[in-house]
TrEMBL record:
Protein name: 4Fe-4S ferredoxin-type domain-containing protein
Domain 4Fe-4S ferredoxin-type: 18-48, 89-120
SUPFAM superfamilies: alpha-helical ferredoxin
UniProt lineage: Bacteria, Pseudomonadati, Pseudomonadota, Gammaproteobacteria, Chromatiales
Lineage: superkingdom: Bacteria
Signal peptide as annotated in the record: none
Pfam families named among the record's database cross-references: CCG, Fer4_8
Keywords: 4Fe-4S, Electron transport, Iron, Iron-sulfur, Metal-binding, Transport
One function term, GO molecular function aspect: oxidoreductase activity
Amino acid sequence: MSELTLERGLAALRAEIDAPTAAFFSSCVHCGLCAQACPFYLETGDPKYTPILKLEPLRRVWENEFTLWGRIKGLLGLQKKVTDEMLAEWEELVYDSCSLCGRCSVVCPVGNDLYAMIRKTREGMVQSGHAPEGLISASVRAITTGSPMGLQWKTLAVQIQHVESSSGLTVPVDREGAEYLVLLSSMEIINFPEYLEAITKIFDHAGISWTLSTQCFEATNAGIQIGNKDIAAELVERVVAAAETLRVSKVISPECGHAYTAIRWEGPNLIGRPYPFRVFHIIEVLDELRAAGRIKTEGKEDDRLSLHDPCNLARKSGVIQQQRNLMALVAENFVDLKEHGKYQWCCGAGGGVSSNERAEELKMAAFKRKKAQIEEVAPERMVTMCATCRTQLEEGLEAFNMEIPVVGLTEMIAEHLVERD
Ligand code: SF4
Ligand code: SF4
């Protein structure tokens, strides 16, 4: 790869400036509402974490090069240029203090999509050599090994053997013509192996034809997190190639929020063509099976349960009611967090923050908002449907000495399936 320089970074920022970007900067009324929506700003109280400020490198390039006023300022020698020092300083603002949760975007009174602009700004940061080490190595591993954590198929093969011996079922692999291709995330494979066993049991119970692919099993898209469209497109192409090889009609994204938005919403634009298959989050599939009467459960959890909505699923994709329908199937004593669904608070770990070791302190600071929400309703257990959120909830609750276990929704459904005769 050729050298990453300020000039490359500026060229990338320039390339990101389009009509929505120009409309964004022209219409911002500096009301500060986005700040009140951001857990990183609110929980640190530090004005430098104000969402709109995170866009300053992109805003400067827009003003300096795309506006008449900017050009006049240039002639008068009054332009504030984007320098390498500035980008080095902004690295923390653009990556460490933003989980790409999109809460700022939904509260902006003039409809500015701050989350999308931060993604654009990351494109320039990467090209100028100002991306966090943790995200760079995750991206390199994703391209070279297929997984941001460097997992190979042999690790998954061992897990498949465990699932098969404990469930007595077969995990289908490379089954051509199956209806669904199931993708996993590395975080799930490492931290929550029970997820694979849960879907194996549920799909067997519901009579679903599905398969894993040895060609591509990973749904995580490190290119989206670091902010590099070429890497993101390459990772999407691998999923598409695997789905095409196996001729599936549907692809299931795992319990991982950003993987779902990457493959479902951003993927076709990244690769420049529509998919020959449809994409669903596992929770959407389970809710469809529930509605069709193909999931039969027995018994209910009787302890007080609450739910954390992953930002990518609820706020960005509108998957809100499905998880509540599934909870109703297996939980007797469910209580929603006060702000939930579209306006729920981020756990603090998404958007690559959890892969960026340097951001650990900020990640835990942002979690305090979620902690306060959980304290308000005092559940005995939390349920969620994103491996990154689940890891952050577990780590955060432990850090604050709150003894509240966290469970995955898919796994909870599997535990209540009616046994076959
Ligand atoms: S909420 Fe919207 S209009 Fe208000 S400061 Fe933020 S970006 Fe500007
Ligand atoms: S996307 Fe979320 S974390 Fe990032 S600036 Fe907006 S509110 Fe803050």
